[in-house]
């Protein structure tokens, strides 16, 4: 737009402009297939979700889908389980993210130190992140959390405590333990990379000046690690907010919706009750919540990007 | 505070006399402790995996005992049972989905990453953010329309729909990682090739691709891991024609009495991804970080 106005009205620049337009499209060429594919696959469904969310559409009833105004949203807002699922999503995502960062930092500090077999130790520590989640969840369920057969029950009995049934008494804690086990290694990987790029000269200088390990950690390492911690937290939260498989196979959202997060609730409404209208309204709600949570995080990430640009 | 300084001063004085002998024992002790701590930490995280391996070689009777049995006569019966329980069709499906989706992801991601790093289009940053942001949006919010469209097209319960969804799932990550590997190519190399008069296409093929090959390999490995492990789309869009996570899910109904079978199945389905993950771990960090931090 701006170029059209400022361009002088001679014929030659228009040819130049034509050329640059062709050139611009040529430059864009390699990007377009991926861009078009992603737009079609991600944006189109969201638009349709929005439309469906205003329809009464249940596969189990033989009525054809029809618009019902905001009835789905009204039902959602009055639905206690919906609010509960939002709370559960927050607790599950928040606690697991913090636990992963704290334990991951501790592990990273230990595994950044050189010692015999460090490579093997690191490789073993990263393994939980790659094991198939569905498989790991089923194994934890029967061999670790089960009060009768599980490892935790046996350990509790060894120290004279009653074996608790984790999945019925503390389902949220059990889920958070499982998620933390799976995602801590991921946080650790990023934080080790952060530690490896720590300013050694500053640390040396601090040591010479008589700063103890705690001071060194607090005033040099933590500020240096901050972008790494932020990135790790963002990537973790992005994944954890969408937790599905662990819930489906460990607790099935129960007991009494105690571990139903918003993703699992959409699944229940959509593929158990087959209420596509209501499930779509829930999907829109999930989208809005995620955007509200992720936008600040994205801005943070773009801040990191801008730093990179300045470099 | 004062105590520390005096102690430190004393230490410095002592060091001046016998600098090496004084320092070594404490330093060595610290190193040993950190090393032990490192091993302990890793082993705690690895313990469930080791326990899974252990149980997979036990009989169901041994595995059902709460006390971890370390001495037992190992059996391969669970593994045989898994292969008899219809493992292969699911495994072959998984392989097809992984290979097809990863191949298409690379074919789409390499040119896109090129247009976002080496010859950046206008507003490259915005495009990159768009790709990343799709990774943040909840897939659950899109699943109903995907199901409806797939049903209308008659592709529910096919590998095709899984392949398409896995491409969408992995493409942003692949673009991000490959872009960061491309940005590491020194500018002099690109300039030199321009001086040589190499066309863009030739430069891309003969200079860029070889340089980022290790990065491409680990990107492919990671995409393969995520595709192999994917459960949400498999559960909602397929049933009989599906991948290994749905095969695993069948064991849910077996319950605690089949712990050893579950352990064996979990081990088999995890071995390929764990090995792929181990191979890709270093580049995973580099790819994720160099795009963002530093």
Please describe what this structure looks like.
The complex is a heterodimer of chains A (311) and B (294). With 311 residues, chain A is mostly helical. Chain A has a single domain, classed as MetI-like fold, CATH 1.10.3720. Helix content of chain A is 77%, strand content 1%. Chain A contains 15 helices and 2 strands. Chain A has a two-stranded antiparallel ribbon with strand order 1-2. Chain A is globular, with a radius of gyration of 26 Å. Chain B has 294 residues and is mostly helical. Chain B has 2 domains: 41 residues, no CATH class; 206 residues, MetI-like fold (Orthogonal Bundle), CATH 1.10.3720. Chain B is 78% helix and 0% strand. The interface between A and B is large, with 104 and 103 residues.
Question: How helical, in percent, are the residues of chain A?
Answer: over 70%
Mean pLDDT of chain A: 83
- Total discrete domains of chain A: 1
Largest sheet of chain B: none
Given helix and strand content, the structural type of chain A is mainly alpha
Would you identify the regions of chain A where 5 or more consecutive residues have pLDDT less than 50? 1-14
Rg of chain B (CA only): 26 Å
Question: In short, what is this structure?
Answer:
Chain A is mostly helical. Chain A has helices at 2-6, 11-28, 32-52, 71-78, 80-112, 118-130, 133-145, 151-158, 166-169, 171-196, 200-208, 213-240, 245-250, 262-272, 276-310, and strands at residues 55-56, 66-67. The interface between A and B is large, with 104 and 103 residues.
